[in-house]
Amino acid sequence: MRRSAAQLRVLDAALDLIAEHGVSGTSLQMIADRIGVTKAAVYHQFKTKEAIVIALTERELGWLEEALEAAEAEPNHTAGRELLLTRVVELAVERRRMVSVLQFDPVIIRMLAQHEPFGVFIDRLYTAMLGEETGDRARVHAAMLSGVISVAVMHPLVADIDDALLRNELLRTMRRIVALPG
Amino acid sequence: MRRSAAQLRVLDAALDLIAEHGVSGTSLQMIADRIGVTKAAVYHQFKTKEAIVIALTERELGWLEEALEAAEAEPNHTAGRELLLTRVVELAVERRRMVSVLQFDPVIIRMLAQHEPFGVFIDRLYTAMLGEETGDRARVHAAMLSGVISVAVMHPLVADIDDALLRNELLRTMRRIVALPG
DNA sequence: GTCTATAGAATGATAGAC
DNA sequence: GTCTATCATTCTATAGAC
Known about the structure:
Chain A is mostly helical. The first copy, chain A, has helices at about 5-20, 30-35, 40-45, 50-75, 75-95, 95-105, 105-115, 115-130, 135-155, 165-180.
């Protein structure tokens, strides 16, 4: 999706505010104030508040999609999985603020579950991350993986921790959970 | 804190709704409707919406406090830590719905950080969970622990997973993270 | 403990001028 | 692309009767 400069300004402001207050805690007035325009100007870029949230989610999942495609293209399965996990951790550390929103905001969770293309993508992602593992235990592992990543990256305890240390500890722990060598 | 029956009805309804919509996404009207009274009746029990959120948080942290005191009373440190982790996992599995609210709702996160007694308690809890570990790496481990627990328990992927399996996998993974035998 | 009624502010959203 | 002005609705919160 090609977006205008004005649209990108809205999305950036919305991301900031939503990361801090959640979707329900962020109003269009707050977004408008942050950019320095009126509500009407924001509504000219996106028809509804939901459209902003969808555009935001699409943009963030886009990074993950690139990583997923690279991993699926890798002929060696284990290598592909290793690649994906590494990239997911890197992305999560890089874009810390968005992680909590995507994983835990009740409005976004609802949206991911109801909006068809999102659900398909999430399934594909978890399948690739788990490799040959299947069944109930695999699902618990997948949930734990996503938990380790998201929380390790957003928790107040680690707010001032060096990116490199965070990345390393995360990767080590993830490898232990999914039993990859490392 | 001793609560009347009417107050408990408010807290139970609020917990349900907040687990589903978040704090900002839950209005006093929704709470009143769920109980079958008017807003004014709810306001008679709690002066503000924030007071409801605080009372809710206190009630849930109360369970953890009992577990923490039992662990601190244990003369053998490793045994105390083992006891605490086990109890925390049990509680999280039992009370799945509240976990996501306590850990990830932006309003509650703010409150836990600003409300003095809450911050003190959280520090005490993490210290006990980590045992002799200290420094940056310990903080990353603490964050990952809380992530594994909370997400493993609330993730859509595990919504229909048996409590016993969830508890076991969680405990095994946590032991690997904090390097406890088991 | 619950009600009706209301105040006052904020919400999402739209119409129409520039 | 942005503005002013406005609408209907919802929000938190309070006053006062039963």
